Sequence to fold (823 residues):
Amino acid sequence: MKEMTKRFDRNWVQTYMLIFIVIGLGIILSFISGNFLTGTNLLNVLRQISINGILAIGMTIVCLTGGIDLSVGSIVAFSGIIAAGLLRDKEYPIALIVLIAVAIGGLLGLYNGYFVAYWNAAPFVVTLSMMTIARGMTYVYSTGRPISNLPTEFLAIGKGSIAGVPVPTIILIIVFILASVMLTKLKFGRYVYAVGGNENAAMVSGINVKRIKMMVYVLSGIACGIAAIILTARVSAGLPTAGESYELDAIAATVIGGTSLSGGRGRLWGTIVGAILLGIVNNGLDLMNVSSFYQQIVKGLIILGAILIDSKRNQ
Amino acid sequence: MKNEEKAQDGLVLEARNITKRFPGVLALSHVNFRLVKGRVHALMGENGAGKSTLMKIIAGIYQADEGDIFLHGEKVSFHTPKHALSHGISMIHQELSPILDMTIAENLFLGKEFCRGKLIDYKTMNREAAQLLKKVGVDLPPGRLMKELTVSQMQMVEIAKALSYDAEVIIMDEPSATITDREVASLFGIIRSLKEDGRCIVYITHKMDEVFKIADEITVFRDGQYIGTYDAGEIDENELVVKMVDRELTEIYPVRSNKPEEVVLKVENLSQEGVFEDISFELRRGEILGFSGLMGSGRTEVMNALFGITQPTGGTIWVHGEKLEKPRPGKAISKGIGYVTEDRKGNGLVLDMSVYDNMVLPSLGKLSNRMGAINRRQAAKVAEEYKDRLNIKTPNMQQMVKQLSGGNQQKIVLAKWLLQNPDILIFDEPTRGIDVGAKTEIYKLVARLAQEGKAIIFISSEMPEILGMSDRVVVFYEGRKKGELAREEATQEKIMMYASDVDEGGME
Fold:
């Protein structure tokens, strides 16, 4: 019984520690820089983390099954470049193009999911293959050049605000709510946890394990498609180099948020707080005029810290 | 005391008054065991009798809770297998754990590689390995990868490895379970020469004929108790079987009054290549059909194929008169079959999920609407209901199952299936590793289910359980159905004869 309370306490601390860290960091930053705690800056942070937040949500769902998706950055680039190309040609309505970009993300995710689930291939390798393929296709389609001259109505998706809240942030919130409902209220979500927690038990319970494993990559691909739209609108162009190393930021947010890479354990809101933490650190270092080279070192140390806390908890 | 031991001629090792408890189980209760120089000592008893546990204590894998071990009259206590090895005690394990992507030689000398300076000396290692292999009569190049070997060849390599330690005491835990007759013959040759060398050998097996061929003396364990040690010449097969299984029925099995009704499950000539063959049986409404046999005799494998966890390679399954094509767990569940699996941690529970989540997992399909949204109120209600019905003790439904006791975990596995309200229920070792109180509750529950008209398959390695619960008993031996006994004709002796493949003629 004592053991149980102890474990519970540790869980509780781990669960809320992240929020304390974020708040603490915010307080420190507001002392260091007068610009930090301003509405404009905070909204800016929220806008900046939207893309990583959406990708990290997809990544978290994949990680819950014990998988990983290294291809998200490249899928973002390919979906984005196709969207930019179609938008430049102005042959289809914007809404349709947005749907096409999202569908392309889902389709490339299907490739990942199919080989992981039905060929029992290692997720690391399959998604690494997709990472290279999608990046290559992006270069082929764009012939290595940026695609610009996009309609201004479209750019509002990245740059606009509704009632003061940046549109990308609104999209992140919607994606977060949908994904949370899916993971907690739908049977699909329970199956995701069960497959990651104990694949054999899930199978014996009559769950179609392969289908679940495939679907999580499709969802991650769809998240990439959504992120691609926001990114393309924010930079006003489709760039062949877009999204490079985005997968690493998404994995970082997931891990910092307390999701276990071996599957079965993790919460979506942790991932979002993880993304916010990374965003605040970047923003704070920017405000202090620290070079982005150092920012990478700090990010790496944060990831290490998160992993150490997690493995301590598992002992 | 010490002098007395020394006076005993040739006594090498003595375990005195050993007791070992596992959570909820008394594995060994004050047992004694003596090994004499140059003798082969067979250790016999049913599954769970405590044979392997005692051997693991002697080999330093487990530590005894009470009692002492004396080696040449000196009190010893081994903390690790390495420690035991350094005192000349080696053990051939029942479960093989070779490193498949390494060569035979690398496996043989794992942890004691031959080195020249810091570099591994493969030449010497392979030469030594070849010699060892020759000694056990295996004609294989030492550079062959383990994964290219058959199971029986792997077992022979394992035996060679045990010999390589040049140990004084060699414990063999069911070494013959997976090897061919020819290899058994060469194993016996090795044992005889070890014996002449003055080594002590402990030989654990379920095969009667082997015992009388190779053993000098036989010790019998039953339910963790020491029953006795006999000279191989002074006891015969039948007496031995009686000593192994005879015991009072300490648990009370519920009495049922219902009669089995129509056939709900019919299995015809079910086979899976290399695993089991030609299994046929019928199961009736309101009936408990016991499946007996030793571990690895194919009981669980047949159930896995029936439920669609593995695919059968031949035969037919009829559920309610309807043919079950290409079984999958999802399909089996929808046909009204529930499977309480043997290994609750391996495939029964998701340990990181809550009590509630585990209980409703297979039922989520029924508990959610067409959009896949779970009807939480109803799910919570049924989960709560079964928690009460099965008397599951948990602080709340959100408790992680890994924090509950074995008995409560097992009840959650049961609840998870009962929630589905299946017509056919398979219980595989439902009482393993749980305490007596929880056992009795599970017996009552199973009996009540049969009374309510469920058809039940009850798999167990514990003889009294099989006899106390079953209307009929099917006995498996090495992947085959060896016999079927009605309740009236089933006795422990008969089942044991079938399960260890002793000719029935031997009974007369």
Notes: The two ends of chain B are 46 Å apart (CA to CA). The interface with chain A takes residues 307, 309, 328-330, 332-334, 339, 341, 346-353, 357, 360-362, 364-365, 367-368, 371-374, 376, 403, 416 of chain B (CB under 8 Å). The mean pLDDT of chain B is 86.
